[in-house]
Amino acid sequence: MTDRYAVVGYPIEHSQSPMIHRSFACLTGEELSYDLISAKPSSFEGAIKEFAASGGKGLNITLPHKEAAFKLANELGPEAQKAKAVNTLTISSPMNIRGDNTDGIGLLRDLTINHGLSLEEKSVLILGAGGAARGIIPPLMESNIGKIALANRTIEKARNLAEAFSTTNKISVYAFEKLHKIEPYDVVINATSAGIKGEKFEFSSNCINTSTFCYDLSYSSTQTPFSAWAYKNGVKNIADGWGMLIEQAAESFRIWRGIRPDTNTLLKQTPTR
Ligand code: ATR
Fold this sequence. Notes:
Helix content: 25-40%
Strand order of the largest sheet: 2-1-3-5-6-4
Structural class: alpha/beta
Number of helices: 10
Number of domains: 2
Low-confidence stretches: none
CATH superfamily of the largest domain: NAD(P)-binding Rossmann-like Domain
CATH class of the largest domain: Alpha Beta
Mean pLDDT: 94
Distance between the termini: 33 Å
CATH topology of the largest domain: Rossmann fold
Strand content: 15-25%
Bound molecules: 2'-monophosphoadenosine-5'-diphosphate
């Protein structure tokens, strides 16, 4: 029987994961199917259990379920333990479900390999303090960066996240209203959902200069609102999260199938939304 995989989220209709994993399957000659599962938070656990009981082999987990998946897994990989969030479930049996988090590896590979950016000693500012920010803080902090800061509309959420993740490298925290007071950062990562939902996207441009690398965790077939803001303010190096999506998927595929697909063909494509 063909091994079955899927991505679970809400909303999920526009997910590019089926296209990406089917391409990986073709490239590697692996025989598998990959579908979409739409599950509201109230039906998330039931959907996972049903998929596992019917013989499904693995799931990608996307918004808003990454923390619920962390709680549901019986065993956790080190990255998932650090982030307290899971984007990849591997099902050995309905009673044995392992959780991993490949978002960090996806981001680091995209930044350092695909975009050739060295993170060493760099100052990194993350805009946003939700689930997306949570997943990328631990891998960034382990990348020999110089300093790291979090800015969020709701300062309390940024403070809580900084407290949870501060180790030897302390995380500074700013409210968005105070961004005009800070100096430009080398790397600014947008982990907010601002703009995607159609709200106005406007931050103080004091946190960037023309040599800042601006990276949006979201992606689009056209310029994202964050990329447009960076461009408008003279930033030359701007990228969106399409590469991260492909690289995190390749890492999930490796965990499931034991083979890492080549990502170059997909990286050259543009997303269909
Ligand atoms: P995700 O899992 O994508 O991070 P989330 O946990 O809902 O989703 O977090 C969304 C992030 O985008 C939060 O940092 C949120 O700010 P608040 O913590 O203040 O809610 C941020 N965000 C969403 N809409 C925003 C807007 N219009 N302006 C600024 N920040 C916004």
